[in-house]
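Anyone have tokens for Ribose ABC transporter? Sequence:
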Amino acid sequence: MLKGIDPLLNADVLQALCAMGHGDDLILCDTNFPAEAVARDSVLGYLLRIDAAAPEVARAVLSVYPLDSFVDDAAARMQVGDTPDDIAPVHAEAQAVIDAAEGRSWPLNPIERFDFYDRARRAFAIIQTQETRFYGNFALRKGVIPPTG
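Reply: yep, here.
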């Protein structure tokens, strides 16, 4: 246990988050996502796990992980079927977490399911959560931390 570090963030996850650079993607996926197979194609090459609901995992990750403010799609969600404007309850909860972490309203863009799989395959790392609600899949692009002073 470390002071100031959310206990959901295990050593493997912290190492991956630290190794990521600006513009790298992190995928948070639900229990139905083909995580093991897709993670083999990721930069990290293996699956990470955090045993909590997706919004809880997002809250923990975003406590140490900056979102990329230079792109429009730094936070994205798997869209519900063929309806990009439908917001599932898990999406609304994650949106509130993202907004709180960034201190402002932040766009959470929809991505069609198969396009989301493609983005996940190119991601740096994939964290499978214990989220059981459908479409509880999110992509978070890493930003930068500005110098102090």
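The chain has one domain: 23-141.
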